[in-house]
Amino acid sequence: MSGRGFAQHAVPTCLLAGGVGLGLLVWRWRSQVSDAPPRPSRRLPTCRAPWLTAGDEERPRVVLVCTGSVASVKVPELVVALRQKLDAQVAVLLTEAAEAMTSAKIAGRYAPESFTKWEELQQSVDVHVLRDLDEWEGYEDVSSDLVVHIELRKWADLAVVAPCSANTLAKMALGLCDNLATSFLRAWDPEKPLVLAPAMNTIMWEHPSTAKHLKTLEDWFGCWVVPPVSKRLACGDVGRGALASVSDIMERIAKCCEGMEGRRNSSAVGAWQRRGFQEWQKSPWLKEWQPRDA
Ligand SMILES: Cc1cc2nc3c(=O)[nH]c(=O)nc-3n(C[C@H](O)[C@H](O)[C@H](O)COP(=O)(O)O)c2cc1C
């Protein structure tokens, strides 16, 4: 065979063999992937997590709700203080906006040290960071899987919303519950302490709805408000609205932990009525009302 003839046959044959070989490799890889047993997940879904129904009886259990304020970069500092000063077990509930604020993209650039601490804390067995997905992920068996926002209420001795955004504050005062954080807060036992530390732009703070919503929550829960402080805010405005200092928030939390043992294991059922709030009753005029054809 001439050199030209050899090239004419050998090149397409090599290409064909290479193609078949590559195809076989891909097929083998795909069958290995699909036949492989599912990888064990990094941790159990929260609705089956043992910590949610157990926990150290001696130590306070704090649910820290973190919302979408720039001040959420202070959350790692708050978690460290909760653990060091109170030896607390902590569950942090992040709203979607808080998740964005505490991400590598925002907190990683704005407050790199705090972000590194945050990443470290999330590896700790005593700090449970939960997002909206944790309510639903793995939830399959209605009779045995836990309802996360309800179980968190039973687990916790104390709920803290810090930083509390204008949005979450308004949602609480209206009783809205469209994410893990607000479902947990709507289900909160009013006989256990609740601390709110608002943080927002000065004009948002001065808006009449802020005072109205805080007053509503004080009347309902007897909650503790740690007021924001005045300074130059992240947006450049100067005025009240910055999150109170971690030490001020901690001072209030420490006071709220006193006597926590006595509040454990009490049923929250009827707690609102014990506080003087009436359960819904049919309006009196409706009691008299009869359909015309009856
Ligand atoms: C950069 C940035 C900073 C913000 N800071 C605050 C803040 O300090 N306080 C606040 O109430 N809202 C702030 N917001 C608006 C909230 O993130 C927004 O209202 C959001 O819906 C809050 O959701 P959440 O309450 O579910 O966390 C900020 C938004 C952006 C983009």
TrEMBL record:
<comment type="similarity">
    <text>Belongs to the HFCD (homooligomeric flavin containing Cys decarboxylase) superfamily.</text>
</comment>
<dbReference type="InterPro" id="IPR003382">
    <property type="entry name" value="Flavoprotein"/>
</dbReference>
<protein>
    <submittedName>
        <fullName>Phosphopantothenoylcysteine decarboxylase (PPCDC) (Halotolerance protein HAL3) (OsHAL3)</fullName>
    </submittedName>
</protein>
<dbReference type="Pfam" id="PF02441">
    <property type="entry name" value="Flavoprotein"/>
</dbReference>
<feature type="domain" description="Flavoprotein">
    <location>
        <begin position="61"/>
        <end position="254"/>
    </location>
</feature>
<keyword id="KW-0173">Coenzyme A biosynthesis</keyword>
<dbReference type="InterPro" id="IPR036551">
    <property type="entry name" value="Flavin_trans-like"/>
</dbReference>
